[in-house]
Amino acid sequence: MMISGDVIGWIIAFATIATVIATIATALAAWRQLSQVKAARWQKIWATVAAVERYDTDPVIDAYCQRLWDASDDGTNYKKPEINKRDIIGLLNFFNGIATGCKQGVYVESIVKDNLQLPIKKAVEKFIRGGIIDEEGYGPLLELYEDWFKKKTEVGFKA
Fold first, then answer.
1. 2, 16, 47, 88 - which has most CB atoms within 10 Å?
2. Contacts 24+ apart (CB under 8 A), 22-26
3. % of the chain surpassing 70 pLDDT
4. Structure pTM?
5. How far apart are CA 101 and CA 107, in angstroms?
6. What is the rounded CA–CA span in Å between residue 68 and residue 29?
7. Hey, CA dihedral for 132, 136, 150, 94, is it positive or negative?
8. Residue 90: CB partners within 8 Å, gap ≥ 6?
9. How far is CA 44 from CA 20, 26, 78, 125, in A?
């Protein structure tokens, strides 16, 4: 049986239309996935901003900081007996939660570093490295501290 030229033309036309429809469907699916990726990225950014913002806006964290400041002669002597270790532990737990979020990819580490680098450095150096609080349980915070402040980076040109 021989197929006429008109039938072959129609078969090619239908095949072309099917290919175009499949290509459009694939493009729409890809666009939808990209939109979801962008949305997830923005959600992660805003979650990080909200977490970092708590350092300045949360009344409990503010109370920890205020009591520590007052009891330490305006931040100069953290070994005074008037300092309540619960305030130190509360502040360190907040920073440890932020560090855990960074290490697990929940938060954007660069945003955290831009906003909390100095308070985290001071907290680790004064309270943990200073021997006031034991470092047990603060692994993520100490790892973040080491990443930010203790790892040496190579500088210069290598041929």
1. 88
2. none
3. 91
4. 0.73
5. 5
6. 54
7. negative
8. 60, 61, 64
9. 36, 27, 35, 29
